Amino acid sequence: MKNTFKLEEAAMLLMGCFAYSQMDKPWWVFFALFLAPDAGMLGYLLNPKTGSITYNFFHHKGIAVLCWVGGIIFNSPNLQIAGIILFAHSSFDRILGYGLKYPDSFQHTHLGMIGQNKK
């Protein structure tokens, strides 16, 4: 099942890349912004609960889709690109095993525990 999940996420990552290719923008922009959603981890500097909220906001595929659709509705290519990058980045993270976070710790994700202290 784990491999099926990773294949599904890989397909979504490719779909995000395809959507970006339709934007008529240079690829360096995609690659330069690809890790930008990880800025959501800065909330962990305050505490795990705030960190989980900020991390999950920037890694939630529903929010990514809302940004993309909002960009289409409001004719905002930058909002479309933000949605595409959020979506593709989230899929990439999930391929690596990083899921949405629970408020108790960074290591506790909806995909299970991550890191050296997996229990």
SSE inventory with pairings:
Elements (H helix, E strand, L loop, with lengths): L1 H20 L5 H7 L14 H12 L1 H13 L3 H19 L12 E2 L2 E2 L6
Antiparallel strand pairs: 1-2
Helix pairs in contact: 1-5, 4-5
Structural features, described:
With 119 residues, the chain is mainly α. It is 60% helix and 3% strand. It has five helices and two strands. It has helices at 2-21, 27-33, 48-59, 61-73, 77-95; strands at residues 108-109, 112-113. Strands 1-2 form a two-stranded antiparallel ribbon. Helix 1 runs antiparallel to helix 5 (77-95) and helix 4 (61-73) runs antiparallel to helix 5. It is globular.
**Contiguous uncertain segments of 5+ residues:** none
- Overall geometry: globular
Distance between the termini: 20 Å
Count the strands? Answer: 2
SS class:
mainly alpha
How would you state the average pLDDT, rounded?
93
- Helix-strand string: HHHHHEE
Main sheet record: 2 strands, antiparallel
Please describe the structure with a list of short key phrases separated by commas or semicolons.
5 helices; mainly alpha; 2 strands; 119 residues
At a glance:
The protein has 119 residues and is mostly helical.
